[in-house]
Predict the 3D structure of the following.
Amino acid sequence: MRNDRLLVALAVLVGLALIVIAVIYWVEPAKSLPGFFPGHQAGSAHHHAKHGIAAFLVGLACFAFAWFRTGPKRATPAA
Amino acid sequence: MILAALISYPRAIVLGLLQGVSELFPVSSLGHTVILPKLLGWNIHQNGDYFLSFLVATHLATAIVLFCFFWRDWVRILKGIGRSLRDREIGDADADAKLGWLLVVGTIPAGILGLLLQDTLRKAFASGSIAAGFLIANGVLLYGAELLRRRAPQTDADDDVRIARRVGFPAAFLVGAVQSLALIPGFSRSGAAMGGGLLVGLSNKDAARFAFLLATPIIGAAAVLKLPQLFGHAGDGVRGPALVASLCSAATAYLAVKFLMRYFETKTLTPFAVYCFCAGIACTIWFAV
């Protein structure tokens, strides 16, 4: 049970982080991205919109995972 | 504009017809689109923005045809996803919901790898001889999938129930990841997905159905993302041929999916494997001499 909660919390945190990363990709040009972001390129005005979409979709997937994990538990039929 | 003029209407028709068939037949549409102009001596710059814009239209047409062909299934699947979100669980008996989430999970690896690597891989491998080499590998992959397939009892009468029972989420992820091979010209998206489906225990018919359902959002999203390119500067001079090509592509895609759904009821991937292997070898020799 404790592991389950930890997993859900982790999924929500990762989901949030990925959505924030997606917004950064959409808003900032490649030259302004943090150096450790894939696609960072000094002097480039290109927006990595696709990287943003990828991060956003994985973020949504994390939220979906958390949503199902926190759903009502089904009663297991007695043997 | 001078480059764009190289896609004449007759060439657009040939490329459109070819795209519709080869996108759904497990023989690599990208590979054929790279190889055929080279074989026919057409001076088309494969990495040119105008050519990529042209291809966007044909891909979009194929995706629309696939979506319309499986329209009723998509309605059921989307309703199933909605039901599962509302109930916060995927019911054991709800095959539509399970199939919907299998498609979502399968789309994740292919979608992410496509978004991140599509342009890089296309530019790296957009050569006739390299595509011919990968076409041989595609043949080996298809044949290998037929040899290694897990034969599972097909007890359920309904296609989607069978798929939902046989395929788990890790397997759907695996099939989606294998599908990403299609980013390399010469490997087939539908072939890779069908091969993956066979390996996780689906029949040829169910693997084809799952592959086509899995391909629809990927092909459609990739085309929609690049659509602004077609209507922008890069599309100048190719919009007319692109429209004609997409109509041709739609027609052949419809015939192809109709044929293949019936074909895979009784037959296997082996003829396509043999074709890819032989065509790949023939093209490799042709380009070498």
